[in-house]
Structures are given as C-alpha cells and as structure tokens.
C-alpha cells in the first residue's frame, strides 16, 4: 500500500523545561479512542456539524454536471467568505498552474477564477470592471444566505449583471446554500437559477470537500473524483489504526493538546512550497474557529517555507517557547535543474549550487529548519506528502479536519460551532439596520466606546 502522508513526531517531545513526554501521550489513549468513536457515531447519524466525515462517500454526478456548465464561461467569480472561500483558494493554489489567470486561454482551457471575499470597494469595482459580465459566472455561497459580506457582494453583482444582460441574469448565477431554507434558497427557487446544496450537517470551515469547494474545482479542470478518493482512502486507513502510536491523527491530537497544556498556545503551520501557501490559510480558519472557545484553543500561525525562514525563524528559534511548529515537506516536486557550470570567476563561490535541483533545495531547507529548531529546544512535527496532486491534497485536507475535531473533543469543547463569530454578526446586522437586531445597537456603542476611550490625534 503506497503512503498518503507520513508524520514524524520524535521532535515533538523536545521542549526546554516543559517537554511533552511519551508517557503523557499514553495516558490519553483511552480518551482519544472514545473521542474517535463519538466522531464516527455522530457522523454516521449525520448529526449537525459531523456531516463532513461522510463527504468522501458522496455522489459527485450533479457537481460534475454543474462543473461542465461553469467551464463554458470565460471567468468564474465565487462570492463567499471564510469557509465559503478559503477552501476554494487553497485548492486553486495547490492544484492549478502558477499564474493561472495569466495563461493564454488555449493553454488554460478553463475559465479564469476569482474570489470576492472582503467587502473592500476598491477590489470589488476593479474586478467587475475587468470582466465581460455576460460571459462570467457568479457562484454565491452562504449556508444561511444572510452572511453580510457575501450578501452585499451578491446584491451588487446581481444588479450589474441584470443591467448588462437583463432577464437572462439568472443564467449566470449558481447558488450554493442550505437545501431547504434561507434567503438564497428562496432566491434560487424564485428565479430558477441553478443551485447546489450544502449538506445540512456540514459547517462552513469543514465544507471544502462538498459542493462549496468542488463545483469551482471541477469547472477549472481539477479532478474532484481523485480529490475525494484521497479523502476516502485517508478515512479508511485511519479507521483501521486502533492503536494510538499507529494512528497519526490520534497522535497529533494528543500532542497538540499536551503542548497547549504546557503553555505552547500557538500552532505554527509551515508548509514548504508556494502551492501549499493557502493550505496554511485554510488551516488557520479550521483550527482557530473550531478550537478557540471557552478559554481553550491555540492560535494558528501561517508561515511559508522557505520565505519565513527569513522573517519568522529567528523568533521561532530564540523567542518565547510558546509554539508547536508543524513543517510540511513534499517528496516529489517538478524537476528544475540549476546550471551545471557558470563560466564566470566571480561566481565560483556559488559552485555548491551547480547542477542541483531547485526542489531538492526546498526540501533541504525544510529539513535544515527543523534541525535548527530542534537544536534550539523547540518542538516540531514533520509531515511529508508524496506530491502535490488531487489525491494527496484530498487526503491531507481530510486528515487535518479529523485531527482538529479530535483536539476539540479532547479539550471538551464543540469543534463545530462558533459562538464568538455569531456575536460579531449580530452587531453587524444591528449597525446595518437589519430588522430584529435593533437591541444590539446600544451594546456596540458601549463596547466600541471603550475602544475610543483614550484617543490621541496628531
């Protein structure tokens, strides 16, 4: 059986005067086993929040059909934020060629792809001004349909497309939302535009392997069957690992819990390679929003090797001992050889690079960084994937969803809700004048007043 990923945890037991010990891990064996049983039982019953565990076994036929339709447009704009966009960003970065939108259409053979996330007018206007709206598909993603940033972008895009092509505007829109309720479900029914369901039991940050992430991926030529197959293989392998020291998801969950208890309240995710840069972005939401509640959680820190060796590594090595660092390396990268020889005397000191592969340099840097951190007494998890392709990205995504959920259960919190986010949403609704939220205006004024209590103007 070929590997989907490998995890090395020997350096996770480094840690100055607060090391995590192997016997500490063994003490959690029964607890993590019970957490795993709970996760699978509630997943099998399709309990709210747990449905993502079933996504590797979904029927993809409707999503692929929609993907074929989307592929006929010149451009696709996904309107969403958080879990309705980060997964798409991650898949596109990992699995499409670099500078994808700049490729000639004959090379690209698929639509250009854009995201409308942050409600920044400069970005929004610049994007729509550069597109032929009659040849652009808009994918609007919100489970509730009332996510403020998404709703604002949607209203604006809908109006602009209607001005361009009139009553046929609905032909350019795909709605991805709750199957039964919400504003967007009503809109899809009333206009007859195409729609896909977000399973009711799947939350936004766990939704990348649902229609939320897969519709655009399919349209852009990413093989979503292989993506989901990788997740399925990961699930099937994890379920067979019934011993703590043989199950990497159990092991990483326990290690993260114990380092959090030891005061390491930051989880650094540092993949090596530009194609995994947005995996760290996706991980940050998954980890932070799932685990940051009731006084628990560790702060996710995005880093990118080798770039952040030159910006963050000094802090990681010699700064506070408050971080657990995960490095992701890739075994097989595209071959890019440096010159065998450069016939310029002034460059003789660089001959150690002659004939070397650029990808090998990146992996050497990953190993060197890990070694430097271990020498400095800082704990490191070293994870390897065979290559960056659909199967292995699907497996990696599912693996970290699984680890995150288990850490939540070990912390005795719900990894599938986000009460802190909901409070912010209520304040936004109140200030934007949404009916039913008037009572929160005074609260916002009171608490924001504390922010302005000591104002210095220069």
TrEMBL record:
It catalyses: alpha-D-glucose 6-phosphate = beta-D-fructose 6-phosphate. Its EC number is 5.3.1.9. CDD domains: SIS_PGI_1, SIS_PGI_2. One of its GO terms (biological process) is gluconeogenesis. GO terms for cellular component: cytosol. It is found in: Cytoplasm. The active site is at residues 289, 310, 425. It holds the Pfam family PGI. SUPFAM superfamilies: SIS domain. Its main location: cytoplasm. Pathway: Carbohydrate degradation; glycolysis; D-glyceraldehyde 3-phosphate and glycerone phosphate from D-glucose: step 2/4; Carbohydrate biosynthesis; gluconeogenesis. One of its GO terms (molecular function) is carbohydrate derivative binding. It comes from the Bacteria. InterPro entries: G6P_Isomerase, Phosphoglucose_isomerase_CS, SIS_dom_sf, SIS_PGI_1, SIS_PGI_2. Keywords: Cytoplasm, Gluconeogenesis, Glycolysis, Isomerase. It is an enzyme of class 5 (isomerase). Catalyzes the reversible isomerization of glucose-6-phosphate to fructose-6-phosphate. PANTHER family: GLUCOSE-6-PHOSPHATE ISOMERASE. HAMAP family: G6P_isomerase. Belongs to the GPI family. This is Glucose-6-phosphate isomerase. It comes from Acetomicrobium hydrogeniformans ATCC BAA-1850.
């Amino acid at each position: 059986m070929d590997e989907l990923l490998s995890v090395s945890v020997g350096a996770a037991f480094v840690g100055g005067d607060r090391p995590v010990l192997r016997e500490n891990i063994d003490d959690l064996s029964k607890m993590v086993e019970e957490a795993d049983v709970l996760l699978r039982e509630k997943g099998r019953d399709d309990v709210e929040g747990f449905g993502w565990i079933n996504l590797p076994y979904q029927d993809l036929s409707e999503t692929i059909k929609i993907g074929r339709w989307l592929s006929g447009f010149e451009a696709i704009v996904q309107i969403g934020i958080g879990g309705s966009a980060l997964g798409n960003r991650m898949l596109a970065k990992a699995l499409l060629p670099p500078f994808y939108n700049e490729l000639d259409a004959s090379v690209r053979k698929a639509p250009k792809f854009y995201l409308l996330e942050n409600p920044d007018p400069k970005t929004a206007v610049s994007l729509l001004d550069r597109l032929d709206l009659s040849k652009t598909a808009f994918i609007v993603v919100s489970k509730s349909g009332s996510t403020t940033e998404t709703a604002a972008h949607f209203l604006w895009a809908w109006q602009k497309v209607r001005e361009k092509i009139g009553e046929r505007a609905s032909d350019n829109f795909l709605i991805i939302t709750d199957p039964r309720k919400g504003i967007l479900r009503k809109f899809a029914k009333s206009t007859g535009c195409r729609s896909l369901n977000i399973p009711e039991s799947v939350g936004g940050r766990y939704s990348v392997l649902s229609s939320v992430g897969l519709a655009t991926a399919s349209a852009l030529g990413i093989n979503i069957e292989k993506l989901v197959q990788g997740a399925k293989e990961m699930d099937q392998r994890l379920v067979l690992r019934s011993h703590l020291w043989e199950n990497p998801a159990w092991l990483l969950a326990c290690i993260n819990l114990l380092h959090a208890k030891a005061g390491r309240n930051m989880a650094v995710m540092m993949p090596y390679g530009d194609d995994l840069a947005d995996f760290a972005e996706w991980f940050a939401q998954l980890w932070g929003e799932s685990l940051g509640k009731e006084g628990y959680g560790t702060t996710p820190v995005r880093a990118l090797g080798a770039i952040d060796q030159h910006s963050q590594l000094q802090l990681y090595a010699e700064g506070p001992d408050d971080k657990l660092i995960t490095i992701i390396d890739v075994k097989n990268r595209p071959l890019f050889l440096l010159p065998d020889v450069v016939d310029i005397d002034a460059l003789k000191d660089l001959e150690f690079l002659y004939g070397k592969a650029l990808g090998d340099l990146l992996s050497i840097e990953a190993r060197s960084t890990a070694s430097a951190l271990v020498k400095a007494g800082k704990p490191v998890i070293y994870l390897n994937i065979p290559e960056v392709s659909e199967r292995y990205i699907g497996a990696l995504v599912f693996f970290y969803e699984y680890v995150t959920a288990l850490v939540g259960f070990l912390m005795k919190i719900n990894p599938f809700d986000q009460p802190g986010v909901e409070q912010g949403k209520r304040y936004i609704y109140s200030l934007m004048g949404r009916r039913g939220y008037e009572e929160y205006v005074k609260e916002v004024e009171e608490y924001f007043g504390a922010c302005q209590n000591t104002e210095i103007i220069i």
